[in-house]
Amino acid sequence: MEDVQGIVGTMVESLMASDARHGGDVTNLYKVGQNTSRLLLATGDLVVGWLLLRHAEVALAALQGEVSTADRAFYTGKVAAARFFARTVLPRLSAERAIAEAVDNSLMDVPEDAF
Length: 115
Prior knowledge:
Elements: H1 2-17, H2 29-34, H3 36-63, H4 69-88, H5 92-102
Pfam families: Acyl-CoA_dh_C (PF12806)
Keywords: Oxidoreductase
Cofactor: FAD
């Protein structure tokens, strides 16, 4: 959650820094645009992680009681999926935040005829 909030904070800072009425540089708005997909994907990962955590909580509670063999396997799978996601996907949010914070306008400074 902290990393997604950090990405949003970085985007808001860039947006505020683009306000020419207060001495800002309007080209800072490009930094916001460069981070929109990053924010969308990071938010999606955060929500999926939260949902998997909720599933794992229910599964762990169910595993404390009497369950059929099939249900035990199902609940065990729910817990395993949540652990896997938390260990392999969620750590990328820190990297995405670092990238968002490092975004500059160097790509936007390349002349159009370079493409």
